[in-house]
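for the record, two folds in this file. i put them one after another cuz i was lazy. first one right below, seq on top, structure tokens after. the second one comes after a little note so u can tell where it starts
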Amino acid sequence: MPDTPLQTQDFWRVNSYGYPNPFNPDTKSQEAWATFCSFFSHDNAAYTSLKAFWASSKAPRKLDGHAVESWKATFEEFGLLYVISRSNTITITPAGNSSPVMPCAIFHCKAIYLAVAKNHRDPLPGVPWYQCLLAHALIHAGMVYVITHSLVLGVPRCG
């Protein structure tokens, strides 16, 4: 095997995880978003509990402890969170907790879920479609009320 110069060797690999972007339909972005949301929901919680979540049947997909470690390292590189060595506590940074992005993104994900789950002709298994339809209607009515300050205009949107 010929010697290759150090500069051309392919050992500085970057991980293939995408940046967590709920608005990008790319699979890697969506996987990263779902994974980041799990870290976000465990803010100031034990890192071991997050690993246990991903090993359980409640997780959207199975991730072993090493994969969760890799995701943690990725999000730390992006500046979204950190776990201080031996502290076992997840801390979301101001960048990961950016107020205009996070609520809008979470709302966007819930809106997509409601759009699919409210379908009475093809309901999601185990999800009552009528509850999702009501939640969807209440969101619309609430936004009309927030904008107009009128229950008279908001309530008909709920029906």
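(here's the note) second protein begins now
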Amino acid sequence: MQTILSFLTDTFGKLGAQFLSISFNDIVDIALLAVVLYYVYRFVRERRAGKLALGLAILVVFYALTAIFEMHAMSFLLQNVFQVGLLALIILFQPELRAALEKVGGDPLRSIRNLTEPKEVAETTRAIDNICIAASDMARDRTGALIVIENKIRLNDVIATGTRVDGVYTADPEKDPAAVKFDEISFEEVLDRRLKVMDLTAFTLCRENGLQIIVFDMDTPGNLGKVLAGERIGTLVKK
């Protein structure tokens, strides 16, 4: 009994000494490391890299096991795979890494502020209610729309890497500088030219129900107000 008490006393004494030796710099260091790990986790979770990250973690564990059991051939193979794989990951996730760096450079404090925002169940209920109200309003006005709800794969990278245009062109203006923009075009001409205006299902619904489509750049401030005011911008698709 005395031995156990001595062991516990020594252990708690060493732990107390370690805690007392922690300086302010150590606390800042740990906090920064926690923030970095949090953003790495969220970066992986919000993109299509979840399964890839899991696969890499399995490879790391397998590499550690080969080193422990002195499996030299497998250890050598995995070591070379990791050396090449790091460069491959940078190339594979180049759009996501660039978007992340642009976000940090654009508003570095925004994500830190988001850490303090409460994540309540009420937000989910509010989102469902808003979707139901929006669907009811659009059905009453005979307005077609596609509603996308995230599941396991986040849509941030899909949205960020999407094609940005200010109308319908003869070709993708980001790939073909000679592409010509249409001010007005018919549904039949879009189909004949095989132009990619929008989702084919939504396009067909608008065509069959006699609904016009206005394709414009939503990222330009004031464009939505111009469209609502009846100003002609972008491309008008009609019968």
